[in-house]
Design brief:
With about 90 residues, the protein is an alpha+beta fold. It has a single domain (about 5-90), classed as Irregular (HU Protein, Chain A). About 45% of the residues lie in helices and about 30% in strands. The strands form two sheets. Strands 1-2-5 form a three-stranded antiparallel β-sheet. A hairpin with a 3-residue loop joins strand 1 (about 40-45) and strand 2 (about 50-55). Helix 1 crosses helix 2 (about 20-35). The protein is elongated, with a radius of gyration of 19 Å. About 0% of the residues are buried.
Length: about 90
């Protein structure tokens, strides 16, 4: 499913125009991104939790030259699915 497909589904299910559904989806994604930038956790009960994880710096190897390099520390987004989402996905059709 692409973002356009998701906008179509939101528009149909919420009885909104595609433009309104697109603005709503973009607003939700912007809010999630903004909270992650502030290193806040976003919990959507039943769906899941968005959070940041910190990767420490580590040693790596350049595959082309074999040279040892240091990979810098970084923050990466994480999503942990909620129980209701896991149960829904596991149900047999």
């Amino acid at each position: 499913m692409t973002k356009a497909d998701l906008i179509d589904a939101i528009a149909k299910d919420a009885n909104l125009s595609k433009a309104d559904a697109g603005r709503a989806l973009n607003a939700a994604l912007d809010a999630i991104t903004g909270e992650l930038k502030k290193e806040e956790k976003i919990s959507l009960v039943g769906f899941g939790t968005f959070s940041l994880a910190k990767r420490p710096k580590r040693k790596g190897r350049n595959p082309q030259t074999g040279e040892s390099i240091t990979i810098p520390a970084r923050k990466v987004p994480r999503f942990t699915p909620g129980k209701a989402l896991k149960d829904t996905v596991q149900r047999k059709r």
